[in-house]
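RECORD TYPE: inverse folding
INPUT: structure tokens
STRUCTURE:
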């Protein structure tokens, strides 16, 4: 039988290459534009309300439409990456929300805004799972989680950049400029990626496109030499070709899959609850508008810091060892926000908000990375997409649940105590998650790597 060359293990033995950095940077830029798109309506909303004479409540369905579009994209469209490839899905998803941003400029009614924002959410819903899968498959094991966490930073950076740009664009050109700028920049990014973004070598190998896989492998990792007469191989690729969400529950994956869904649901519930309601609670506690807005910036800024710091820690110590105490910290921080806000201690409140942002927002890209490393190549996009899709149900439930508790006149302290429960569930889920991948590994010297490539008869 033909000898086989294990592509995944060969990549694991390589140091980081310049071409790999370019691939990770392009994927991160996709998520920068993704984050920009999803935050764009929030930055445009005050001008739209003023120009159209709307109430604040009338834009509620517009915001919900975007989140619902992401939910549909995660569940129904993300598996396309496991069938047709990571690259075409990322390209089409980026192009789709570029078109939708440009189309949003033509809206003249809230109904049209709802339709455009729903359509705009479909692309981001499937782009993140495939971006994480591609980043995972182009990263050696010793830097895999760090690479995926860096990619995850793009989302927060896009939202932050959108705020700075909107402060400059809207006064000069109106709210339409936010979407025109984002749409045009996304189209340019698509044009660059068509030529510069390669397809996953593992995906190409699994689909028996060996010539293209070899060409891509040599271009991105020039240090890898495939011995003559050996065939590229991805473990399990020949015997597991079915791409279906039901496969996530089969062959011993069921308990881990459901546990990941529960953790994602609980964490995204908290993430969107804090993002949507924290400034309001700060104002209700007596803080002025600027301080309340600053609390939101602290929340997201601490989340970006979490993205950057948690990746190397997980690469070194593993998901379970890091994320279990991180979600314990989230439980304590969220419960503390309500109590220190009642005490009107600004410093303590901001410290609690920062810890919550670091743990909840910073922990979400780590959960995406965990999903990407849990599933084999043929199920990777599907696994990440469904974990996020189920989690995004939590992102819808969180703000609604908070509004319901406000209507019942819950105190701020009691409300945040209740919000700490999902964080506690995330912590328990991580602590009980069996066989969470630990990716610690060191690249071997090139001479050793080339002489010890994996073979199987």
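DESIGNED SEQUENCE:
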């Amino acid at each position: 039988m033909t000898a086989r060359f294990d592509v995944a293990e060969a990549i694991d033995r390589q140091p980081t290459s310049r071409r790999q950095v370019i691939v990770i940077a392009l994927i991160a830029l996709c998520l920068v534009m993704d984050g920009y798109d999803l935050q764009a309506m929030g930055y445009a909303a005050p001008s739209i309300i003023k120009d159209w004479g709307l109430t604040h409540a009338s834009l509620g369905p517009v915001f919900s439409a975007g989140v619902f579009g992401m939910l549909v994209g995660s569940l129904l469209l993300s598996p396309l990456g496991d069938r047709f490839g990571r690259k075409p899905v990322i390209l089409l998803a980026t192009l789709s929300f570029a078109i939708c941003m440009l189309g949003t400029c033509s809206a003249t009614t809230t109904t049209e805004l709802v339709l455009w924002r729903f359509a705009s959410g479909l692309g981001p819903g499937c782009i993140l799972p495939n971006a994480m899968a591609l980043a995972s498959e182009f990263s050696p094991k010793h830097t895999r989680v760090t690479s995926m966490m860096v990619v995850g930073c793009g989302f927060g950076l896009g939202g932050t950049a959108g705020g700075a740009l909107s402060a400059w664009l809207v006064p000069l050109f109106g709210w339409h400029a936010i979407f025109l700028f984002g749409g045009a920049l996304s189209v340019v990014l698509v044009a660059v990626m068509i030529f510069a973004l390669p397809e996953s070598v593992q995906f190409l190998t699994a689909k028996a496109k060996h010539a293209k896989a070899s060409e891509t492998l040599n271009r991105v990792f020039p240090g890898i030499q495939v011995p003559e007469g050996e065939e590229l191989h991805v473990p399990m690729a020949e015997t597991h070709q079915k791409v279906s969400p039901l496969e996530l529950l089969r062959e011993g994956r069921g308990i881990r899959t459901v546990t990941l869904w529960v953790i994602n649901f609980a964490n995204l519930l908290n993430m969107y609850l804090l993002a949507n309601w924290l400034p309001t609670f700060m104002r209700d506690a007596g803080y002025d508008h600027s301080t309340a807005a600053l609390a939101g910036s602290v929340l997201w800024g601490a989340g970006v810091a979490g993205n950057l710091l948690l990746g190397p820690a997980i690469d070194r110590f593993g998901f379970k060892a890091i994320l279990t105490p991180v979600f314990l910290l989230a439980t304590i921080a969220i419960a503390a926000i309500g109590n220190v806000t009642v005490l009107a201690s600004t410093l303590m409140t901001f410290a609690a908000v920062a810890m919550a942002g670091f743990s909840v927002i910073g922990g979400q890209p780590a959960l995406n990375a965990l999903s990407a490393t849990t599933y084999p190549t043929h199920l990777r996009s599907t696994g990440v997409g469904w974990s996020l899709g189920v989690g995004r149900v939590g992102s819808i439930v969180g703000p609604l649940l908070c509004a319901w508790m406000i209507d019942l006149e819950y105190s701020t302290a009691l409300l945040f105590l209740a919000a700490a429960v999902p964080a506690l569930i995330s912590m328990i889920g991580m602590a009980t998650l069996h066989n969470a991948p630990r990716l610690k590994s060191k690249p071997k010297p090139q001479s050793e790597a080339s002489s010890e490539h994996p073979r199987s008869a």
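NOTES: DSSP finds 17 helices and two strands in the chain.
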